Amino acid sequence: MIYSPRLKKILEYCLERDEYVSVETLANLCKTSTRTIFRELKDIDYELKEYDLRLSSKQKAGLSVEGTKEQKDLLLKELKVQEIAYLDKEERRNMLIFELLHSEDLEKLIHYANMFQVSEATISNDLDIIDPWFQKRELTLIRKPGFGVRLEGNEADVRKAITSIVQQSLQQNEHIQSVNFLDSGSLLHQIFIDTGSQSILKLLDQDILTRILKVFETYQHELSLDRYASVGYIGLIIHLVIAIDRIAKHEEIQESSEVLEMVVHDPAYQQAEKMAHYLEIEFDIDIPEVETAFIALHIKGAKMTRPEDKEHANHLKHLIMEMLMSFDEEERAILLQDEELMKGLLTHMEPTITRLKNDLPIYNPLKETIQTMYHELYLQTKRACQLLEKEYDCIVSEDEIAFLTMHIGASIERGKQERRYQRNIACGVVCASGIGVSALLSARILKAVPHGIQLKTLSMEDITTHQYQDQELLISTFDLDIKDIEVLRVTPLLNEEDMMHLMERLKELWDQPAKHFIKPKGSLLYMLKDAGHCAVELLESMEIIEVQDQMSISDMIDKVASCFPWETQVKEALMKREEMGSVIMEDMGFMLLHAKVADLNHAYMKVLYPKGSSFQTYGNIQFVMVMLLPQNAIQIQQQLCSSINRAIIEQEAFYKALAQRNVETIKEQVQMIEETTIREWIPW
Description:
Layout: H1 5-15, H2 23-30, H3 34-40, H4 44-48, E1 54-58, E2 62-66, H5 69-83, H6 89-102, H7 109-116, H8 120-136, E3 140-144, E4 148-152, H9 155-170, H10 184-193, H11 199-203, H12 206-218, H13 230-248, H14 257-263, H15 267-283, H16 289-302, H17 310-325, H18 329-335, H19 339-357, H20 367-373, H21 375-392, H22 398-420, E5 425-430, H23 437-448, E6 453-458, H24 460-464, E7 473-476, E8 487-489, H25 496-510, H26 524-541, E9 543-547, H27 553-561, H28 567-578, E10 583-585, E11 590-597, E12 604-610, E13 623-630, H29 635-650, H30 652-659, H31 663-681
Parallel strand pairs: 5-6, 5-7, 7-8, 9-12, 11-13
Antiparallel strand pairs: 1-2, 3-4, 10-11, 12-13
């Protein structure tokens, strides 16, 4: 019998409970109406008769499937079988492993053949291929011709094997890097439900999973869950789903005084006890001490804390030094001088050693990428890990090696960058006026590349008058028709692809000798006079204007223009600039209005605020920074305006003053920004 997804969900829910279930509960479960539930169950008794079952209905109580436990289990198993889907033979074999690990009885080959819709011969061949996987994990695949197949092994090894196959599936999940793992809804759907072909994750008990996530969401702070990295947190979730599922089936781990003694006095055990307490209440089960000890081991293996034992820390540092000494000469010269690497490895190695000592699994979603892209470095790290294996009599997994390779690779890259940063690359950032998009783009670039680069904002007028001759590279958001200097075209928001192209070009320039430019001649005193005069004018022009919440950009431009004697020129200039695209920073809650205006006698700065908390038309926009420059603005005027716009992103104190609408503090911050800009601009 083929059942609809909704009918399967209804039957499974009823079969798993020895009590009546209200129709309203089923309707909520299926996110539909009670009328639809009754329609789905029409004629169901005819289908249930095949299994010697029937649907019982009681007024006010609800619905229940009546029959023996054996017949209920038989139907439930058939319903589960219908859910199995796979893409290729490798995925089918992984799912066969998962099914064998969960089955407690002998099952005939025809059972698995029907489950995966293949022949018995195919299943027999799959068993031959996966048998070494079980042997490697101390599990025995028992095959009795005519009777069936099942696994034998102790409970701890079964759980490790289940965790291993689940984590193997998890590594293929493309969302693992981006999901907000402390948001239970996002984690449930992006990692465990909406997993595409990674069906093993869907085979985890979804009820247990959902309830654990509910407990963790409720007691997030009490359990200090925000201390985990995403990998450790998701690994803990998987461990608990498997453990509770096995405890509910009376498959507890045998008592182990050795494990208990190892962690009973550790802070991780106290946290595990608290976690176990909340889970016992939720699932109405007793979690034995040994199970709590294994939870503590998992916490201890996932925590990112430095070892507090001084003697142990010194021993660990000595071991790390030995490992670094095993790298090839070129890498070794960089690694041994990197203090940041030593701190990182000391932090990382403590939980690593806990995992190795207790054979706790971990998964690395970037393992295959690291093995491919950094193959030689991975092999050197693998060689260094032989010292770990010898020290702790263990096998270091490929996932652990990949994590260590990431630390090593980051250190080598830092070392190479430090060599490159012996000089700064002069880059001009171009936009129409030189004060808007270029300022924000500069802030984004400096955040991503804090060393080895010196940025100068340029306007289109600067490009036309060749005021870029002292630059090695121009970065622009639009095409520039010039031939005497390289132009890198980027998007205004500087996406990952832009950043990759910029880094590639910077690396080439860092490896080249610096160009020598002739500095423009000019009187230092007159430059100081111009700079000071422009800075004071801009500061004194600063004004806060409160406007209606519902204002459109066009209305804002009208309001700004009305503040000037040159209303028409200001309005036309701002509208012309807006036609090129609005500068709205939604993530930070502000907008820029800027332009060069004919007839202006100096630069002006205004800040528009809504009467309420934000401009309703544009979401979370809290303020609008307005910058106006004379059409023939001198370079220092342009530089001052650009620095102020850039500081909104770069300087938290300035952004905070703007967000709080504090006029005096805003002016104090602007003055400091201007003074810094002048010091950097004047060729002392």
